[in-house]
Amino acid sequence: MINTLQNDNNAHGYLWWLNGKDSFRLPATKVTFYGELIPNAPNDMFSGLGKDDQKLYVVSSHNLVILRMGYSAGTSQCDPSSFDNELWEKINKVIAY
Predict the structure, then answer these.
(1) Which of 1, 12, 65, 69 has the greatest number of beta carbons closer than 10 A?
(2) How many domains does the chain have?
């Protein structure tokens, strides 16, 4: 589940998003974006990214699990949003790498 399973989308495992890959493709698109899925997040993070910014982030290198429930933090979508990168910018200020 935390290994790339699609030849055309490096950042997607079996129902999980994988950070730290060199490219990704958003659902229902044929456009490949180069770079990490969530640049501010740890490379070994994998995540469930749901509707209305409901999130589950898992970072085993930090024994960290973060869950976000509630209303959308902005534009509603079922994939990475600006919320993800902004949140990890703040988290990075309080965790040690």
Answers:
(1) 12
(2) 1
Residue 66 exposed, middle or buried by CB count within 10 Å (0-12, 13-18, 19+): middle
Asked if residue 73 belongs to a domain, the reply is yes
Contact criterion met (CB below 8 Å) for 48 and 56 = yes
Return the HEC string of the chain: CCCCCECCECCECCCCEECCCCEEECCCCCCEEECCCCCCCCCCCEEEECHHHCEEEEEHHHCEEEEECCCCCCCCCCCCCHHHHHHHHHHHCCCCC
Q: Which domain holds residue 22?
A: 17-92
Q: What is the pLDDT of residues 44-72, one digit of tens each?
A: 999 998 877 788 999 999 999 999 998 77
Looking at the predicted structure, is the pLDDT value of residue 6 above 70? yes
Of the candidates 62, 67, 19, 64, the residue with the CA atom closest to the CA atom of residue 39: 19
